[in-house]
Amino acid sequence: MTFRLPPYPYDRLDGLAKLADAHAGGMVDCSVGTPCDPPPPAVVHALSTSGAERGYPPSAGSAQLREAAAAWLARRFGLAGFPAGAVAACVGTKEFVASVPHLLRLREPGRDTVLYPAVSYPTYAMGAELAGCRPVPVPPAPGRLGGLDLDAIDPGDAARALVLWSNSPSNPTGALGDLGAEAAWGRAHRVPVFSDECYAEFTWDAPPRSVLQHGSDGVVAVHSLSKRSNLAGVRVGFYAGDAELVDFLRAVRQHAGLMVPGPAQAAGVAALSDDEHVEVQRGRYRERLASLAGALGAYGCPVALPEGGFYLWVPVPAARWPDGWAMAEALARDGGLLVSPGDLYGEDGSGHVRVAVVQPPDRLALVGERLGRVSHG
């Protein structure tokens, strides 16, 4: 059977974007988590002056980049002495997430199942589809917006699983998972656990967490500089953990020619070596979350602040709209605000919309002003 590629999720928002852009002052795009704030000047300087553009960069990442990543893991998560040899670079983390099932199937061709959070970043499921695998969603932990209900995983699916994906803080819900329990489940079932931790720096009610705090055996943590350092356009990420898994993935990726450009690696070293700019960014996102949550509440769409991340996962008021698409249309029409309907992140998300607070404060204030002029009579 010929593979039929589904529409790219965010391309489905084109009609809503036109509706939002009809406002005087234009659309305020909070549909995608694209940072708007500048990266640190030292990072831009490193990017422009490295001289690394002349030669082929190491696929695994330069020694400096891997050492900077290991040092950051030690500072941020208390992982003193984490070996740089158990760290490797990736070209941003989206390509890594999408390619992991295919690569792991080379390692264990008898397995064909990808377990992933039922409400989550679409690339976990798409990576399974692209590898010809079975994507099997795992429901959230009971009474929670996030985490994984590990007891709900069918034993047959566990026996066929190539990987269990975890994401904490969650995109889109902002909820935190039980990384220790997930690591233990993976070890008990001989299933590698890959923990997507790209929002870890934006954990609000507790210190940031990593699956690596529960040991590296059978687990891999995935980190990105796109969010923490506003470097989405530079495409620098890394993965770290189980030495055998990291080395296998590194070797296959080297054969495939997957390389972070040399200047981008130099920028990554500068970004990972500085924590002050992250604290500044944390403050920006906390203020924006509170500001837009207040505007949405006044519009009749109350929402709790997330445990982590920079998204508001807004429940659809059932008395006003039937689903997230109808609510997204109203927000575009009334506020010029473009948001993502929740079913882009799985069928179970249909009763929500996701709002990324990645626009400057004046643009978010404009949304509040527009929504404030709407009568609910």
- Count of alpha/pi helices: 13
N to C succession of SSEs: HEHHEHEHEHEHEEHEHHHEHEEEH
What percent of residues adopt helix (DSSP H or I)?
25-40%
Beta-strand content: 5-15%
List low-pLDDT spans: none
Number of strands: 12
Q: Gyration radius, to the nearest Å?
A: 21 Å
Structural class: alpha/beta
3D shape: globular
Strand order of the largest sheet: 2-8-7-6-5-3-4
Distance between the termini: 53 Å
Q: What can be said about the biggest beta sheet? A: 7 strands, mixed
What is the arithmetic mean of pLDDT?
A: 96
Brief characterization of the structure:
The chain is α/β, with parallel strands linked by helices and 377 residues long. The chain has 13 helices and 12 strands. The chain starts with 13 loop residues before the first helix and ends in a 5-residue tail after the last helix.
Describe this structure in words.
The protein is of the alpha/beta class and 377 residues long. Helix content is 39%, strand content 14%. It has helices spanning 14-21, 41-49, 63-77, 94-107, 123-130, 155-160, 179-189, 225-228, 243-255, 262-272, 276-298, 324-335, 361-372, and strands spanning 28-29, 87-90, 113-117, 134-138, 161-167, 193-196, 219-224, 237-241, 311-315, 337-338, 340-341, 352-356. The strands form three sheets. Strands 2-8-7-6-5-3-4 form a seven-stranded mixed beta sheet, with helices on both faces. Helix 5 links the parallel strand 3 (113-117) and strand 4 (134-138). Helix 11 packs parallel to helix 13. The longest helix is centred in the C-terminal third of the chain and has 23 residues, at 276-298. The chain is globular.
